[in-house]
Amino acid sequence: MHTLLDYLGYLQIGPKDIVEILLVGYLFYRILLLWTGTRALQILFGLVLLVAVHGVARLLGLSLITYLLSQAFTYGAFALIVVFQPELRNALAQLGRSRLWRFFARMEESEVAGEIAEAAARLSRAKIGGLIAIEREVGLGEYADTGTHVGAEVSAELLTTIFTPYSPLHDGAVIVRGDQIVAAGCILPLTQFPVEDRSLGTRHRAALGLSEETDAFVVVISEETSQISLAYRGNLVRDLDPPELRRRLASEDRPAVGEGAPGGGGKPEGAPEAGSGATGEGLPLPAGEGRGR
Question: Is 105 found in the same domain as 185?
């Protein structure tokens, strides 16, 4: 203990060191914030657990476990690059965004939000179910790969056509990235939490499931009640009108979906509706079966 205190006594922390500590701390904070609610954070916790096990094994003199974990750490760095590739890509993309780019991005988001809100209004009037996932910071590429590539500009007309009953892509979710419809007929993960409201089916469960794993906005249109709902960060707001939906999608500060919509609408629900393009086993529903309520 005396040696440690002597060593600490030689440390001279100046203003530059304090700035570096704050910058590194902020960097780690931003990384954790970016990965919150994603699989990457779970993997990171797993790695921390392995490091802790390695330290305990060294203290106890467990040479075999120490050797195996040391070898895993040596070659694991290459595996981490592959595992965290989507998160690393998003982080680098964020670093490259200037204030000017954010200004134009907000203009683009406002236009896209208007098209999505208009499509939701049309589907609601026609009592046609729909599920639209809007990608934000966390990539949705793995979910887009489960559907059919579209690669078209977002428009209310195209979204309405995609969800028209008996069309080839009407069962499943549409994924929007920027101003592009990336894919349609996609399979989304179901929520793993208990659902108290049993009137909600697979479509809302899938919307909540994706919002729990990513930071995406997921718009749900019920073909039974014609309600428009919005899922975000594991919460569900129901009975939104198109103007309120557009405001929430285009808002710069991204208001929490727990906020009630004007006029008593927008009630948050911690439960999710049928026809999401996912089932309990993660398979798409057959056409005409279990579509949105």
Answer: yes
Same domain, 105 and 215: yes
How much is the pLDDT for 11? 62
For the chain, the average pLDDT equals: 75
Q: Please report whether residue 290 resides in a domain.
A: no
Considering the domain architecture, whether residues 76 and 114 belong to the same structural domain is answered as no
Task: Compute the distance between CA of residue 134 and CA of residue 35 in angstroms, rounded to an integer.
Answer: 17
Handedness of CA 229, 232, 236, 239 (dihedral sign): negative
Residues 86, 107, single domain; the answer is no
Retrieve residue 155's tokens.
Answer: 């428009």
How far apart CA 272 and CA 280 sit, in angstroms, is: 13
Domain around 31: 2-95
Could you give the strand order of the β-sheet that contains 180-186, starting from the edge strand earlier in sequence?
A: 148-153, 180-186, 173-177, 130-134, 217-221, 228-232, 235-240, 267-269
CB atoms < 10 A from the CB of 225, how many? 16
pTM of the model: 0.56
Q: How much is the pLDDT for 266?
A: 38
Q: What is the pLDDT of residue 7?
A: 52
What CATH number has the domain bearing residue 141? 3.40.1700.10
Give the residues of the chain that fall short of pLDDT 70.
1-11, 31-42, 83-109, 195, 199, 252-293
Geometric angle at alpha carbon 241, from 240 and 244, rounded to 5°: 80
CA atoms within 13 A on the CB side of 253: 2
Is residue 252 assigned to a domain? yes
Considering the domain architecture, whether residues 129 and 265 belong to the same structural domain is answered as yes
To the nearest 10 degrees (0 to 180), the angle between helices 85-95 and 15-35 is: 130
